[in-house]
Amino acid sequence: MIEKTLVVLKPDCVQRGFSGEIITRFERVGYKIVGMKMIWPEGDFFKKHYYDVEERHGTEILMGNVKAMTSGPVIAFVLEGVNVIENIRKMVGPTEPKQAQPGTIRGDYAHYTYALADKNKIAVRNIIHASANTKDAEYEISLWFSQQELFNYQTVHEKYTL
Q1: Which of 39, 94, 131, 154 fits 137 for a cystine, CB–CB 3.0-4.6 Å?
Q2: Which structural domain range is residue 65 located in?
Q3: Is 10 in a helix, a strand, or coil?
């Protein structure tokens, strides 16, 4: 099934300078970028993005996420492809980098733990966000991108294999 998902390279990723490597990993698998931008949103925007975090994890976690996400610019993009939501989540790895296997993005580029984040009273530094499911992907894409910012085109893979 062809679907779309939102990916956000967080400030800790952008600041460390390996955004291109991560984007390349998605393209090498064959996923198509249909929208992309670098922005530095404000806190209220991230409160909308993390609309259910306060309810699930509390105000302290929500505000830690907002502080981390507003500490620098982010690169947001929409990927399209077969089972893209599930497969991107597999490529990204678990939320806590400590649990992420080598070969996943978090396993290869992050090492932070929940315990260290709690000790320092900050959000876990895990470099990347990817939509968790279809509902979240639809909500997040509409929050981050207008329809005019999303493009419909055919890649070489699609042109010669579909």
Answers
A1: 131
A2: 2-151
A3: coil
Please check whether residue 126 is in contact with residue 95, taking contact to mean a CB–CB distance below 8 angstroms. Answer: yes
Please indicate, yes or no, if residue 105 is contained in any of the structural domains: yes
pLDDT in tens, the chain (162 residues): 899 999 999 999 999 999 999 999 999 999 999 999 999 999 999 999 988 888 888 888 888 889 999 999 999 999 999 999 999 999 999 988 889 999 999 999 988 777 777 777 777 788 999 999 999 999 999 999 999 999 999 988 777 765
Look up the CATH number of the domain holding residue 38. 3.30.70.141
pTM score of the predicted model: 0.92
Question: Is residue 158 in a domain?
Answer: no
Q: Which of 57, 111, 129, 157 is the catalytic position?
A: 129
Q: What whole-number distance in Å separates Cα of residue 13 and Cα of residue 125?
A: 9
Q: What is the count of structural domains for the chain?
A: 1
Strands (E), 52-158: 74-82, 128-130
